[in-house]
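Office hours follow-up: a student asked to see two folded examples consecutively, so here they are.
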Amino acid sequence: MHLRHRGGDLVHLAYCTNVHPAEDLHGILAQLDTYAVAVRDHLGADRLGIGLWLAHRVAAGLAADPDATLRLRAELTRRGLEVVTLNGFPYEGFHQPVVKHAVYRPDWSERARPEHTANLARVLALLLPDDVTTGSISTLPFGWRTGWTGDHQDRARRHVDALGRELAELRHRTGRTIKVAFEPEPGCVVETTAQAVRHLQGTDPGHFGLCLDICHLAVAFEDPRTALARLARAGIEVVKAQVSCALHAETPADPGVRRALGAFDEPRFLHQTRMAGTPAPGVDDLPEALAGAGALGGAEAPGGAEALNSDAPWRSHFHIPVHADPAPPLTSTRPVLRETLAALLTPDRPRTTHLEVETYTWSVLPEPPRDEKELAAGIAAELDWTRRELLALGLTEPTTETMPPDPTPHPIRSSS
């Protein structure tokens, strides 16, 4: 979907397909038929943007066969879908029964990560619509912090520099600029925007920048305007922003709040949990927080050895649908999302033109959607909420469309 910023820039709004599990081309097209087309119909949109997730095997196959990529582009066009951004963070197996730390491998110190990202860039250069010349790929923030050494960092930087040369050659050959956006995430080598500044300085600004996942920003208890000002001073571009909310517990000492948090303790994904503070201390997963474990240790850990306690609010890295609230007494970080969107899309100019709703956790909510139709309706409601927020910020729709009534945010069904 397209919206026009008052400065004239076209802002692309999409939803990320890493919410769907398929890792082969046939399965990807089938799930787009099931979900993405239904989402487009819900919204009454002529074209729907998708942030496409391609596991490494299908990405490698498409990169090696440009004709197959062009056929995929034609299939997307036939369905009223378009791609300007790819999610290159998960490498494979993102919907296995247990993912946890596996999502961070291979990391940027391993050759497989830049090879995968280069394949994605080649594919995206062919998938971009005719009227778009710049695409984005989000990726992990170098790697998981544990065991990350200076040698890992040196190898990662060499890989990034080499990829930069490949991206420059791709731009020269195709006329398409593909930018890679490192996505700060709790517990990783780069968790905060301050760490992003340290690690991204000196990279090619024409091809590398930041993916601002707003859930992750909230979990780190970063102030959106301060974070964006820090990035601007350092000359680091927000290549892409992921529209997302985290889980917020205002009074974690309350037994009822603890019980409610327990309903979000599930085995597939890692739910890093942080306590309000500067820096925000925390633990690597929600079960540790509920068990009263100590905070992360080590030089790169927020809060050092300070204990995680219940005296201040907690936020957990559990992507909550942006239009809905978890059942009380929990809330989401939607206020942070609203503030960040306003800071990104100021009246004078947009800080980014690629927005991707990324709620990959629908299937592990305390009560997930009951069927395919409910999931498609939920994704459409997220996009509709985001579109309305952008319109309220002064963006406009290039074409007039009949809109459904303004949906009122409703609690997520919870078994707690």
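And the second, which I mentioned at the end of office hours:
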Amino acid sequence: MSHTDPAPEAGVEPAPAPSPAPLPVVAPLPPAPRIERRRARAPHGTRGHIRALRFTLSTLLLLAVLYTIVVIKVLLIPLVLAAFLGVALNPIVALGARCHLPRWLSASLLMVALMGGIGAGATALAQPALGWFHDAPAALRNFVPKLKGITRPLEAASRATQSLVNGQVAVRVQPPRQASVAVTAWDVLAAAPKVLAAVLTVTLLVFFFLIYGDDLLRRLVEIIPSFHHKRHAVSIVRSIQTEVSHYILITTLINMTLGAVTAFMLWLLHVPDPLLWGSIAMIANFIPYVGAITTATILLLVGMMNFRELTQALLPALVFASITVVEGNLVTPMILGRRMRVSPVAILIWLLLWGFLWGIPGALLAVPMLTSAKLIAERVPNWRWFALMVQR
């Protein structure tokens, strides 16, 4: 038989439950020792050291990047050049795609047309260029007496001034005659394999960028996690692609027009081989300021070699300088607009930097790279200071 508790009797109240024990009173914690407070303030005191360390690491990283750019310039120069050409020519291929032409067909037709035009121009200009290289030593020997005829009055004035100051007649010392250095056609053709390899590399890269460039950008955008950032990245890429292609195409057309006008004016002035000098002016004008000065110097030498009178010899360089002034101060700002203009100081610094790193290819690519960097910095909040610094 199981044991059960007895039931409470009727009319008897149950005993009250025992009250809980009171909680113990906790004494307040004593103030933190002075050592702990110092330890809490220690990170604020090391901010200067952290900033100095960050600046040092950033400087070392920049130097490492510049060194890497110099070391692998043989790989980077064709890639950068092909990327800019692909961006510039992409609107033409996109126009063909809107006309229901496959991208590979539009790209193939465009590349065949470009290579045919460049090849025809190079073939037409190769013979005059080789002729000038071959005749350069004889032309320089004929140029020296003309230069002496121009500088003879200055030398006479200098000797007269020196005789008045020193009380004696200065004796002119003939400088030693230097041996002339001839540039043969073999020296030019010796570098042909490297040039052909570089041209073939850039051509293939441009062709594949035109065909698969949009797919590559689409896959890069797919890597971005959030939809908002994807939409922002697509907007930035499309706007930069449109504006950079617009800048490159307009600049190329302006330079081609400059070369054509220069060749026509030189033909009117009876300068030999005007197409050659017009082509040099067109290519050199991709390097702002430096290219115009170089072309004017070349035309000055060509005028001195081919004309006897000083006025007629200076006329080709003066005409080209006038054309360049009109192009740089009126035509280009009016077509490109203020938004695409860059500060001359920034252009010169950029030219010095990339000319030092990559040589002549770096000088040719400096302004397109600076313009692209400015367009990117305008759309990235943390880099807008760079766009303000380089803007004109």
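Two things to take away from it. Residues 153 and 331 are 41 Å apart (CA to CA). The radius of gyration is 37 Å.
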